[in-house]
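Allow me, if you will, to draw on your knowledge of protein folds for a short while. I have a record of one protein: its chain in single-letter code and its fold written as discrete structure tokens. The full record is reproduced below for your convenience:
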Amino acid sequence: MNAPTGLDFAAISERVQSEVQRAIQRSIKGVEYFSSSGPSLGSTPKDELHSRGTMHLYHYRPQASEVYRVPVLIVMATTNRGYILDLVPGQSFIEFLLKRGYDVYMLDWTAPKPEEKSLRMEDYVLDFIPDCVRRVQQDSGETDVSVIGYCFGGVLSLLYGSIFKDGPMKNLICFTTPIDFREMKLFANFADRRYFDVDGLIDSTGNMPPELILQSFEMLRPASRMAGQVQLWENIWNDEFVKSYRMFDRWATDTLPLAGEYFRAITKDLMWDNKLYNDTMTVGGRQAKLADIKVPILHAVAEHDHIVPYDAAKHLITKIGSEDKEEVMLKGGHVSLVAGANAIKRLWPKLDSWLGKRST
């Protein structure tokens, strides 16, 4: 066997030095990661028009010289905060809408307090949303309002639209919104009425703890957090990658508790009895049938959505009573559909094209 040449030793030495430097850089960046708070999220200028308990209504300051006549009200999911749609400049759906000339409002949520455990589905559908719509009308001076609902915010928007079918909602846009809760497979198993004592849980805890909600999401992809952390470590010196990771990870773990009675209704009416899909849903004694919605509707679904699989969302367009209705399936997952580079290229331009024609 031939002994290594001087050139071989030089190559080995260079490689060792490179790996040592790489490890040092990774360690330094790791210290920076844990010692810094990350980018500031949700920084698009806005004013709080009204707040009441868990409900907060914001109006974003216009950024275009000409604004569409019909204002837009975004209804966020009750489990997550609205800054996923307003990450940082250049990656903000809110900023995009403002620059495209829309007058944007958001119904966002904070954690319900223990004394708000008695909030029911009707408080959200028959009180919070109508109250915000009225305030948007008063602030904008317009009668018509377009509504955008994200995930379960879409479910609330559908219930609102089906009950208040004579207006003032002019257009409805749903992002990744489930209606057939039998197809939310892992959630359906988690909430199986044979094993899940929702009454005992809510009677003892008051509100649904956020830790249980977060764990139910993470059970959908048990290894995803570990895989993400490995990927972060491998790319720790890539500032753009780290910035993106921190934004999405912060939002994903910033889960809100759910008001007890509200969660009880979600479990029994939607998860157990699938009433929205079966056309038997009522809210506060008022029927909520999807066929009663007649306004133009766009439903955007994600090709690789592990939270709301397509089978849970695909019947929405066929059950809606509107003549002007469209479903669009785009690449991405439950979050990347609406936020990040994928959303910038696909969903945002599609929504602008669809909504702009219906906002004059």
User: Anything to note?
Assistant: Strands lie at 46-52, 55-60, 72-75, 104-109, 145-150, 169-175, 282-283, 286-287, 297-302, 325-330.
